[in-house]
Amino acid sequence: MRNLEMSHTGFRAIEPNILYFGTPVALISSLNEDGETNLAPISSFWTLGWTTMLGLLDETKTADNVRRHPECVVNLPSPEMWEQVERLAPLTGKNPVPELKTKQFHFEKEKFQAAGLTPTGSDLVKPACAKECPVHMEARVLAVHQLRGKRLEQLGGGVAVEVEVVRVHVASYLVLKDRYVDAEKWSPLIYKLSTLFPISGSGAGENVSRGGLGAESKALFNVSSENLLHSHYNFITSAEVPQMIAKFLADPLTNAPAGKAAAS
Ligand SMILES: Cc1cc2nc3c(=O)[nH]c(=O)nc-3n(C[C@H](O)[C@H](O)[C@H](O)COP(=O)(O)O)c2cc1C
């Protein structure tokens, strides 16, 4: 084996105030005790197959709700919805507000109204979908895993909630060939180092986001204002997208030849 270079020349060992290097934002609908829906922004989530893991701080109403009523909706906002996400940022559905959050958060029961969003009925679960989000994924909770780690404990602890998606609603303008989401039209809202960014659009370098979060959420994640640069990111360029879709659709694993049984 090649000798590994032991120095990190050109690097600095630092303690970043946040390790959220860039993930999409979701708005999680969960059921309150009275049957109304709570709505909360998160960005710690990922999916394998139709199983999704949601990273939730213990001291959230959402964590309480999914433990009590094991259903939720994972709503995906579009980049234009950053203002609605910002409006939700300083709110919690937990009353009284947990000690750790009192300086930055206040209680709000009517989250949809506060954000200017519309609750709309789900098909298979009780929590409502957020109509303005182009994607709603109804899900059932399979397990709640306690997470560990000193830094997480300083934030009051957290859980990884394992959910299974049971119904997906996608805005019609994004649906291709009944089964696919148009990657050229869909773009997530990205949470990157405590700032909200779009990743779609044609003008690279163009300043389109004013989505720096308010003092409340910066304080929660202990982020200083130097991080709040606004820029425009293209992870893949628009020109690459049609080729990628064509390759994806031509792949026999994606589109099994007619007559053959579904991929086993
Ligand atoms: C963009 C963004 C991303 C966030 N990501 C998370 C997250 O991944 N997990 C989490 O528990 N809280 C996250 N938060 C903070 C919660 O939204 C916040 O704790 C909120 O009060 C939860 O609402 P609830 O108490 O009504 O559930 C995020 C906030 C914002 C604005």
Q: Would you mind describing this structure in some detail?
A:
With 264 residues, the protein is an alpha+beta fold. The chain has a single domain (23-237), classed as Pnp Oxidase, Chain A, CATH 2.30.110.10. 16% of the residues lie in helices and 30% in strands. The protein has helices at residues 61-68, 82-88, 111-115, 150-154, 215-220, 240-250; strands at residues 23-24, 26-31, 37-42, 45-48, 51-57, 71-76, 91-92, 106-107, 119-120, 129-130, 135-147, 158-170, 175-176, 180-181, 189-192, 195-198, 211-212. The strands form five sheets. The protein has a seven-stranded antiparallel beta sheet with strand order 3-2-6-11-12-5-4, covered by helices on one side. Flavin mononucleotide binds next to β3, β5, α1 and β7.
What is the topology?
Layout: E1 23-24, E2 26-31, E3 37-42, E4 45-48, E5 51-57, H1 61-68, E6 71-76, H2 82-88, E7 91-92, E8 106-107, H3 111-115, E9 119-120, E10 129-130, E11 135-147, H4 150-154, E12 158-170, E13 175-176, E14 180-181, E15 189-192, E16 195-198, E17 211-212, H5 215-220, H6 240-250
Parallel strand pairs: 7-8
Antiparallel strand pairs: 1-15, 2-3, 2-6, 4-5, 5-12, 6-11, 9-10, 11-12, 13-14, 15-16, 16-17
Flavin mononucleotide binds at residues 25, 38, 40-44, 55-57, 60-62, 85, 89, 91-94, 105, 191, 213, 217.
Which descriptors apply to this entry?
four-stranded antiparallel beta sheet, Pnp Oxidase, Chain A, alpha+beta, binds flavin mononucleotide, 30% strand, globular, seven-stranded antiparallel beta sheet, 17 strands, 264 residues
